[in-house]
Amino acid sequence: MPIPYKTLFLLEAATDLVFEIKRLDVQSTNPGEVYFWFRFDKATQQLQSLTFVAMDSRSDEQYRTFVQGALQFGPSAGTYTPQLLGTPIHLHLIVPAILPPAAETALFGYFLAA
What we know:
The radius of gyration is 13 Å and the shape is globular. It contains 1 helix and 9 strands, in the order E-E-E-E-E-E-E-E-E-H. The chain has one domain (5-113). By secondary structure, it is mainly beta.
């Protein structure tokens, strides 16, 4: 079942997508109930929820820390470094931030199962 959402950030590599969404159907003062980060593996079509820890920004650079890894990005590109493997994934920013159909289907499945 589709949920109303807005993609806030979408970063893409040949193998992965990393993105943040805002749920439009949830009215809450708790950001953890409204904003969500995900990593989508294009090969396996698997969606991984990223557990948010912290954020920072300096100049044009944004930094996000998750239990699963760290993300750094600017106006056109970024890097996601998984916690376990530690091999950086180089990403480019997609504007406008519109999820591909496979990622959107996985997103809807995630919230349906939750």
